[in-house]
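pasting for the record
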Amino acid sequence: MSSINRMSVDHPCPPAETAAVPAVSVVVIVYNDASRLTTAVRSVLDQTLRGVEVVIVDDRSTDGSYDVAQRLAAAHPDRVRAFRLPENSGGCGAPRNHGIQQARGDYVLFLDSDDVLERNACRNMLEAAESTGADLVSGLCVRVHVDSRTGKEVKWYPWLYDRTRTLESISELPDLLVFDTLSTNKCYRRQFLLDEGLEFPVGIHYEDLLFSAQAYV
């Protein structure tokens, strides 16, 4: 895992009033993926770290994804909230931006509906962020080819994560700008995103690239 310092709709089902402010908010975006949404959310609810909330943002699905999101929120009112955009945005940027605005945790992670989190992901990233004071923590991502017979797993540029390190500037490891372009393998301090006005570009593909680059610099 690498860490880097910054230079060092529809109304949701209401959360329980007694719920504590979460340490981490995981924003799960979905569009027409009702069959896999529950698995993604369950991977967050099963985290070993206590105090993790799920913010589901539906990009105006037509397949019942929002119904699944509402059921999950109703089943876990103190941990899951569900939102739906007023119209389909055509990309991942708008729902993620809405998730940032709705998140209550000190730190934010992003997940797509076809992703899952390793059980210790939130704990490991939070500990790295708090121990180093980093605004951004990046970890290893593994891609699983579910359409193959063996379910082949491919690590995402593993040489970037072969050891733990803290960087004061992107100039210490500029390869991150080229290869570490995903948003779903990172933990961001929420106030950092708000202070810097960082948002995903809307209406384009590969929106992660620009967002990740802006976060690093």
